[in-house]
Amino acid sequence: MDGDTFYMLYRAAGNDEEHVIRFGLATSKDGIHFHRTSDEPVLGPSTEGPDMGCVEDARIIKFDEYYYVTYAFRPFAPGQYWKFRHDEVLTQDHGEHAPHFIKRNMANSALAMTKDFKDWIKLGRITDSNLDDRDVILFPEKINGKYAMLHRPKEWIGEAWGGHEYPAIWIRFSVDLLVWNEPSKVLLTGRPGTWEEKVGGSTPPLRTDQGWLVLYHGVESGGTGYYRVGALMLDLEDPTKIIGKTENWIMEPEHDYEIEGYYKGCVFPTGNVIKGGTLYVYYGGADKYIGLATCSVDELVAFTLSQPLS
Asked: What is the pLDDT of residue 165?
């Protein structure tokens, strides 16, 4: 939300077999009733470059006059992924010496900037090319003179990466938005046998008087395989410290539009704003719809801080 306008970058794709994914733009004055600004995408894959296949999962913050958008991309379109096993995508044979990123049609994350969501500067990759590293989210302000970023590299598990059995949310800092070479630190790990075996960041952190409020998603590997949502509170001066965490989920798939779609059973927030003490959370439902959930931000903060930290 900027001024009196809500801006929504939404991911969209047609019924093509490759399932090329692009961004559209919708705006609203009340945060509830949105209108598409065009019949055309506002940002899409390049014709020659690492993001030729798709752009998706936008997270937006603002510095100065520019909106900075982190997004996931692939070198080739993912295909109609709901027809495959979870997390599988279309791949192509480019030979033995092709980079890992090309061989596996791997998802990386990039950064773009714009003043108006019409004219864009694509700044390029901000994650390592050999890691499936998504859910990349920037903090909306510097912390102790540095930019801060949440990310979720799926390959950073096992003994080589600290013995983490399941993907985790990591945090890292930088003095430049394109150079993220300082060591990362694990913020939140997946918990075996729970609703959050695999975790990832969901929405850009929101500053409150008591800490940074961050929504995240959790996925169970067995059972229904649902995507659910939890909340974290991070220390304002040192966001590597979790000061509050919901023990159980605060959102889960319940309605038809969250259960029946391209992914059967998914609530996946990527945007949130605070207006008049109310938290507006925008989320994907079953990868087919966009939903809105609201609550009192003070109540959510108090509830998250009241949970026992394990």
From this structure: 73
The residues facing 147 across adjacent strands are: 174
In this structure, are residues 135 and 118 in contact, taking their beta carbons and an 8 Å threshold? Answer: no
Q: 274-306 b/e with 16+ CB inside 10 Å = b?
A: eeeeebbbbbbbbbeebbebeeebeebbebbbe
What pLDDT, in 10s, does the model give residues 62-81?
999 999 999 999 999 999 98
Question: For the chain, how many helices (H) and strands (E)?
Answer: 3, 19
pLDDT value, residue 86: 76
All residue ranges of the chain with pLDDT < 50 are: 160
Q: Which of 221, 89, 106 has the alpha carbon at shortest distance from 153?
A: 106
d(CA 288, CA 81): 13
Residue owning tokens 């705006």: 27
45-50, long-range: CB < 8 A, 24+ apart: 45/20, 45/73, 45/77, 46/122, 50/75, 50/101, 50/108, 50/110, 50/125, 50/129
